[in-house]
Each structure stands twice: as structure tokens, then as C-alpha cells.
């Protein structure tokens, strides 16, 4: 029988790429999104239910109608700075919203949840590369909102039998290689699209936050993982989850760090001209290096990153921006 996945936040960046991955693997895909930060045009695989996850009655009705084998949960606010300025919004939307979703699942007998978590739950790294045993100590409300959800999933697994996998992303980047969907945030805060825009539009310089980190070139190092690799990991984790009980956590990264200045050089190679940059001070709480260990993903999912070379990431993001600057 064909399986069905309900994807909350499926009109957003990572969620829409995961919709495509599940659809291409033969799943029926249903997207649930309030479109506050997603895009109607990104919903191309199956129906869109325009709904907020906090509307427990409507979510319950959707679960009863479509009877999904799996819920893949991406719906969340994800701006670190905004979470510091307005933490209530993050705890209400992300944490309480997920609680409403879990209660709707419990009421309708849906027992499998794939959760979009984050490396922000680790906080400042104590050891590198970061694996799943690294202590979690978030330094902002966004990270806390996700970490609390992970604890909720452990408790719901033990008490109510809802199995889950929490996938802790590092830096999602790049766009669909086919050019069907891409990255579009308002405001845009991700380094790759900002650096590309600075190469295409001299009036929008790219700010390098910190050039005095204890790294080889003085700029911060991050682990960029292509969004299509993330999507494939979600598909593999979803298939695994159907046969597993309990609450599981898995990192998604590449084990390779790219500095901000190396990222700028990669954009220069792809775009044919150098991004206009300006140098700014470090941002509070920015660690010098964030690099993942993906050994557990390789061991349990059979997943390795296949499209996450920085030049390919930039190439796909640049193609998206040049061909379709608006989603």
C-alpha cells in the first residue's frame, strides 16, 4: 500500500524539499502550513491544508481525513535574534504548537513523528566534531524551544507510544538541483543567499561577523549540508521510524567545516565576481567552529552527504537566485 506523510511546514525551505523527496519515493504527501513564513507556490506535491499547528481541532480533523502513516514536523519559527527579542512567540509557536500537534496525534492514533530539530540545542561546543552525546545547553530561546520539544517526545514515547526521530541539522544550504524549489526567507538571514546577493547586487553588501576568531583565517567555521541531502535523510529516517519504537536523535551534517571567508571565495568562483563585503564585530554567542559528526546517521540510516560540497551548494543556490529570484 502507498504510505502517506503529513508534512507540517511543508511550504517552507527544508519542508518543501522534503515534500519532493517523499513524493519521488512514492509516498502520498499532504502539506499543512499556515503560510506565515512559507510559500503557497512551494507546495507542488499533494494538497495544502492551510492551518496553524496550534489549531488542535483542525489538525485532528486533518489526521482523521488523511490517516498518515507518518507526521514530518517542520512548522516552526527559526530566527535566533527574533527569539531573543520575543521569546514568548517562540515558546508559544514552536513548543506549545508541537504540544498541540502531539495531542492531536494522540487523539487520532497517529504514532510516528519525524521532528526537525537543530544543532542550536547544543549551544557552545565543548568538543569537536559534535556527536549526539554532546551535552545540550542552548544559548537562545530558539534552541531551548527545540530542546524542550525533544524532551516532550521522550515523554510521549514512554507514556503514549508515539515513536519519534529528532534530526538535529547543522547549516542547511543550497537549493533543489532541478530548480523547482529553493530558499526564500523574509527577512533573509542565511549566509549562502546573502553572500550570493552581495555578488549580484553591490548595493547589498555581505557582513562578515567577526574576523578575529581562533580559526585559520579568523572567520567562523560552519558545517553546511545541502538541503537535498537533508531531505533524503528525512525520507530514510521516516522509513526507519515505521519499524521502531522510542525517541531517537540523529545529527545531520557533513563533518567538514567551511569558514565564512572560504564561503565568499566559493561564491566568487561561481558568480564570476567577488561579493561586496563589510566586516563587523562578532555576534554574541557565536562559537568559532560548529562541525557535526554524522557517524550515527551513517550507521542507523545508511546516510552520507552526497551533494554537500560547498561549490555544489553555491551552484544550486546561485542557479535558483538567477533563474527565479522570487519564489
From TrEMBL:
Keywords: Carbohydrate metabolism, Isomerase, NAD. The keyword Isomerase applies. Pathway: Carbohydrate metabolism; galactose metabolism. Its cofactor is NAD(+). Coiled coil: none annotated. Its EC number is 5.1.3.2. Signal peptide: none annotated. GO terms for biological process: galactose catabolic process via UDP-galactose, Leloir pathway. Homodimer. This is UDP-glucose 4-epimerase. It comes from Bradyrhizobium cytisi. The gene is galE.
